């Protein structure tokens, strides 16, 4: 059973890596953020269209490893339609999951990243887009870097 689940998670990550969702610029974005992971070379820019306190639309552009691109793709899917606070809670859940392997609550397809904690160099790849979305929602003007953040 574990091997089947592991295979399914790998398929989800590969699918989102090869065919990222929401991979385009949002010309009418109300906030955005840049993120970089110098260790792996991941670079992304997030675009958010907020309607009040809700993420009406979200997208990204960038280059990076498969984990980074898949994480950004799944994050944009998960964040659409959520409030600022819901996105912050998802950040906490994903951060816990990728650093410890513990899945807290219903994270849906994001559970594909539960095994990342076993590969410390990949944790920063998986969490980069999440730091960027947090920065965008907080209106921080400076790019986020995995080297400036505690993973």
SSE topology sketch:
Elements: H1 2-18, E1 31-37, E2 42-51, E3 54-63, H2 66-79, H3 84-100, H4 120-138, E4 144-145
Parallel strand pairs: 1-4
Antiparallel strand pairs: 1-2, 2-3
Mean pLDDT: 92
Helix content: 40-55%
The strand order across the widest sheet is: 3-2-1-4
How many distinct beta strands?
A: 4
Query: What's the gyration radius in Å?
Result: 14 Å
**Could you describe the largest sheet, including whether it forms a barrel?**
4 strands, mixed
The N- and C-terminal alpha carbons lie at a distance of 30 Å
Structural class: alpha+beta
Categorize the overall geometry: globular
SSE order, as H and E?
Answer: HEEEHHHE
Strand content: 15-25%
Number of DSSP helical runs? 4
Describe the overall structure.
With 151 residues, this protein is α+β, with helices and mostly antiparallel strands. It has helices spanning 2-18, 66-79, 84-100, 120-138; strands spanning 31-37, 42-51, 54-63, 144-145. The chain starts with a helix and ends in a 6-residue tail after the last strand.
Structure in a nutshell:
This protein is 44% helix and 19% strand. It has four helices and four strands; from the N terminus they run αβββαααβ.
Key words describing this protein structure:
single chain, about 150 residues, alpha+beta, four-stranded mixed sheet, 4 helices
């Amino acid at each position: 059973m574990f091997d089947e689940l592991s295979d399914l998670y790998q398929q989800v990550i590969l699918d989102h890596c090869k065919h990222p969702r929401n991979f385009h610029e949002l010309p009418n974005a109300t906030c955005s953020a840049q993120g970089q992971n110098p260790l792996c070379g991941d670079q992304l820019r997030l675009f958010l269209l907020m309607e009040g306190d809700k993420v009406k639309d979200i997208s990204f552009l960038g280059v990076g490893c498969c984990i980074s691109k898949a994480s950004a793709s799944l994050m944009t899917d998960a964040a659409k339609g959520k409030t600022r606070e819901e996105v912050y809670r998802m950040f906490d859940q994903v951060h816990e999951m990728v650093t410890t392997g513990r899945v807290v609550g219903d994270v849906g397809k994001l559970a594909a990243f539960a095994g990342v904690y076993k590969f410390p160099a990949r944790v920063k790849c998986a969490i980069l887009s999440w730091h960027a979305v947090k920065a965008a929602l907080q209106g921080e003007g400076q790019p986020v870097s995995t080297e400036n953040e505690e993973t």
